Amino acid sequence: MSWYLRLVGVVRVSNTADAWETRAVGSRKARTLLALLGAQCDRTVPMSYVVDALWEGTPPREPEANVATLVSRLRGRFGQDTIVGGRRGYQLGESVHVDLHETATHVLKAERLLKDAQPAHGLLIAEKAMRLLDDGPVLTDHRTAPWAEQARDVQKALLRRSRHVAAECSLRTNAPRLAQVLAETLVATDPLDEPAYRMLMRACVLANQPARAVAAYQRLRMTLVSSANRGPDQASRDLICRILRPGVRHATG
Hints:
Blueprint: E1 3-6, E2 12-14, E3 19-21, H1 28-40, E4 45-46, H2 47-55, H3 63-78, E5 83-86, E6 89-92, E7 96-98, H4 99-115, H5 119-133, H6 146-172, H7 176-189, H8 194-206, H9 210-228, H10 234-243
Parallel strand pairs: 1-7
Antiparallel strand pairs: 1-2, 2-3, 4-6, 5-6
């Protein structure tokens, strides 16, 4: 039986027939172990790392035996192939699918579709990834754990990539309004994201708003000067030059 582990937003486990919030899975230690392995997904987590995450520097006398007991309980609840490994370390089995890592596959597929000149299909896949990723922070029950913070960094990076590819796909499918929203979200998240500013400028032009495109460039220039002590790069300067020429609508690709 396959299981789906959701780490974004409210952590929960589900299959086609049942769903549990993490608190229904077992003890807090068992829930932490499941979340830890889910955050690492297809990598074996060494026993020492597991012990440190579960007991934060104050392990019991026989921590490996305690971990083995937790694993046994989780296997009893979800199946023997849910967790694989032994005394050297553990990882989730192939029967468990993790949202954070499935979205990485979606983002990569969207990027490939864009590269293969299939922006409409790429936009659908990128939007699916964004819906999965943009539902709150990862592992809200583990706000201070370093391993959880690493997972949140992965989430942020994937969300940024999915927004980038969705914005570019929107431009190539003549959907400038959506591209504007996505690009504005990107620059709000990272004011130094120059490629996002360029997409915003192109979206404004496609929406017949060249003045807004120029304003976006000026905002980029001032932000870079004040925050990074530099001006826009060559690609941005070339784009604003094309925008200021006649026939601008056809010169922003």
